[in-house]
Design a protein that fits this description.
The chain is of the alpha+beta class and about 150 residues long. Helices cover about 15% and strands about 40% of the residues.
Length: about 150
Amino acid sequence: MDGASPNFIYEPHPEHPGWHSWRLRDDTLFNAQVMGEMLVRTESGKCRLRMFPARKHQNLLGMIHGAVTLGLIDISMFAALRTLSSGDAGGSVTLELSTQFIGAGQPDRPLDAVVEILRETRRLLFARGEVVQGDNLVAGFTGIVRKASEK
């Protein structure tokens, strides 16, 4: 996959060797405004999307808010579409997302969504993955993405 895209910036990150930036070209949208900086890389046929929790991502218990975890999961499926297949994440939409919250995300270290593609058809991508912090399992998920219409 090359880095050229009308919607995304995907380029090697100068401060994180082996990682690429994963951001929308329009930084006024959800990804930048809510999630903050995100990095992506592929490893063993999977896509790993990383975010860096900040105070704004915490709930009243001082843990990562479930909505932030869901946001990371949703974005990770599009990162997988872009990095593991030939799909264009721009214009694609989430059809289904099933999440099991297993543990609390801690605010003091990166939060990763690790995604694999189970099956891909002309119009759909079936994915599953986990949200982790090191060895700590935060959530498991499966999802379906409808790919952007061919032009």
